[in-house]
Amino acid sequence: MLVAPIPVNETKRLESLYQYNLLDTAPEIEYDRVSHIASQLCQTPIAMVSFIDRERQWVKSFHGLGVENIPREISLCAHTITNVHPLVVEDTTKDNRFFDNPAVIGQPNIIFYVGIPLLSAEGMAIGSICVIDHQPRKLSPSQQMAMLALADQVMLLMELRRTNNQLSRARAEAEELARQKAHLLATLSHEIRTPLHALEGHTQILLDQQPRTDQQGGLQRLQMTGRTLVRLVNNILDYSKLQAGKLALEKMPFSLQELIQQAVEMQSWQAQQKNLQLVTQIDPKLPNRLEGDATRLLQVLLNLVNNALKFTKVGEVRIAVQVESISSSEVSLRLEVTDTGIGIPEASLSMLFNEYTQVSAETTRLYGGTGLGLAITRQLLEMMGSKLEVRSQEGKGSTFGFSLVLPIAEAVAIKPNGALLSAEDLFLAVDDNPLNTKVLSHFIGKNGGRVDTFNSPLDALEAAKTTSYRAMLLDLYMPELDGYELAQRLQTVQPGIPIIALSADDSVETMERVKASGFHSFLRKPFLPHELMHTLTELA
After folding, report:
1. From CA 502, how far away is CA 491, in angstroms rounded?
2. What gap in Å lies between CA 237 and CA 90, rounded to an integer?
3. Which phi and psi angles does 303 have, rounded to 5°?
4. Is the peptide bond before 195 cis (omega within 30 degrees of 0)?
5. pTM for the whole thing?
6. If 197 and its partner were Cys, which of 145, 167, 339, 525 is the partner (CB 3.0–4.6 Å)?
7. Residues 6+ apart with CB under 8 A from 425
8. What is the tens place of the pLDDT at every residue in 119-176?
């Protein structure tokens, strides 16, 4: 008996075989059918599809012979893979290579053998499809052609399997990359926005304390710089989330009038420095309360107003809201931001909403900017079911506008003294950072409410056992006890109590966990006094 020689390309051949991840897999009907068809076509009692591993012939499918592993040294298939052409042995008893082979002189008594090499995409012979009989015989030309076609069919099945395996691996790698990216975005959101929250909050506290006239300008510049940085950070982080499909819109009641006023207040210092008028024109038919994502809509407004102020030297920037139609449940409105600035050349309008792109290199040099603001604004509006449109005349100004259809929400009752909160409104606020609890205490107290602040979640939990609260505000990331677990414990102490999550991380994963943990609402840091009051007054 002659043992089949090891192919000179054995290492590469095995690498090619292993790429299919087929060895030692369960039976599959597609391969079983191929063996059955081969047996029927050639009128032989046995047919197999098998592969040559390092030391064995492994049988993927068979007809007429129940075997899984055959030692390579006695394998006829091992001889088949030494050539790219079919191996035809009409009578093994008369062939010097096989006449004394244990599989010839004993079971399964192989006398007639035809093996067709299975060639991988790299051209490597990795296995065979074979037919076996117990007596000498020949195959007709048509039968040989059919066997070659079946070999091609087997390789098509294997290539499909390899492609699916590659896609599965690619998908797993992409999911892992997306998970790492989401984790990075969450970390960046928390690590960057948290100090910005302290900066914004304490700047506002200083301004509320009626500083000297000579101090007001510096504090306002500090506040404007901080808010500019917040806007840039939000744009960058939100752009990454949009690209990863990880940004979700909220649906909460808000006042568009207040939102516009908020945007004006945030941009007023920049307008004053350039002696520009910042004008609002709001349709009196606009309902007081609407439903939507106020945070993202404010971001859109700030991007458009900031853009208008940046490119305007003389004149005004106007924010106009026009009600297009209204019913008992929803309103269709048109919001436009118009400036008297430098305008945009018609040839440049097509690239206006491209990421990291500005109208010209000179524009970047003179006015600065990342080129992300309008691109993000466009994508956010598309998520809201709208479209950002622009009209412009070079040298005269531009108008950016969009239409929205928003549900109408119920109005919020104002306290008799005009305050949003009352002295009976006692809140619990928990944040491990004393600067943050000081900000919460100031904002709530300024609007007529009271608040018990805690930097220790465990102390807050003890206090909740003896004191009833109107609502609770919890930071999500605290060392002793995170906000999620604290919320669950507080719900057992005061069932039904509204609990508000506070965090700089507003990723989809965080929002889903917030919802699953039973929080009433979510407030993203850094938040402004208006945003905090909106959230608290919704509890009324």
Report:
1. 17
2. 72
3. -60, -45
4. no
5. 0.56
6. 525
7. 448, 449, 450, 470, 536
8. 998 999 999 999 999 999 999 999 999 999 999 999 999 999 899 988 998 999 988 8
